[in-house]
């Protein structure tokens, strides 16, 4: 790579959608993962925390202000995950943090993961980015990423859980700025550069670069976030066995086998059949279950009021269904 082709950027942006769009601007979440299998989506929603699907593969990660990100874009023939991971490891070692690269190309300190990475290959370039847990809120990380849904069977790629730690226990002075400076210094040395200009990026890039805007809008769209979800089936118990099928993030089928003696009379069962039709081809979201109710009521054309005992039970059932998603 010629020296004139080497550029360095440090983003001052905290919006994950925009940071991923900036990375795409130069070439190019995990992309092939199922958010309902990987994340506690109800906790994320309750805390108003967005989830983002990136364009690279790899596992699910948690971002806050205590977690920094590094990215390397280079010719495909020059790319190896270990080379870039070792560069970052040297940067940490220069900060007196005993980091090393394990067999999965993760960065670890005393056996605990402080950085994972993902990549994407195109015809001519490689795109590689990784996390760095400096002073992240680890209890929140576990709250959002620790979830067990054995009844959700997906074709998506599962994350590989690992014990994690922050850099903070190993250094009282390390922060985002010192980490960036250390990585830039190692990058400069690796490419035998006497000087490397650092370009600062802010939110203004969104209006200045049409390709960033295009990537940003795509990353925030439901068609990307939801629509890229691999096909899956979710089976769970809810006064009986409920099975929901989904493809491309949309509900393609719903079946319910009620337990006897739970008050599910013929009117309830008939109403449920109508309600299931209102869910088909809708996004697999708790909000979808709630928003389908008015359409279901309209289907009844006044033949059954919402105060009818069967309708009251059905409304309670749909609320439990939304919570089970």
Which descriptors apply to this entry?
single chain; 4-stranded antiparallel beta sheet; 12 strands; elongated
Mean pLDDT: 90
Q: Which series of helices and strands comes N to C?
A: EHHHEHEEEEEHEHEHHHEEEHHH
Structural class: alpha+beta
What is Rg? 24 Å
Strand order of the largest sheet: 8-10-11-12
Largest sheet: 4 strands, antiparallel
Backbone shape: elongated
Separation of the first and last Cα atoms? 49 Å
DSSP strand count? 12
Tell me what the structure shows.
This protein is α+β, with helices and mostly antiparallel strands and 325 residues long. Helix content is 37%, strand content 21%. The protein contains twelve helices and twelve strands. It has helices at 16-25, 35-38, 41-46, 81-93, 138-145, 176-190, 205-208, 210-220, 222-225, 266-279, 286-299, 309-324, and strands at 8-11, 67-75, 99-101, 107-109, 112-115, 117-121, 125-133, 152-154, 198-201, 232-237, 240-247, 250-258. The strands form four sheets. The chain has a four-stranded antiparallel sheet with strand order 8-10-11-12, with no helix packed on it. Strand 4 (107-109) and strand 5 form a beta hairpin. The longest helix is centred in the last third of the chain and has 16 residues, at 309-324. It is elongated and about 80 Å long.
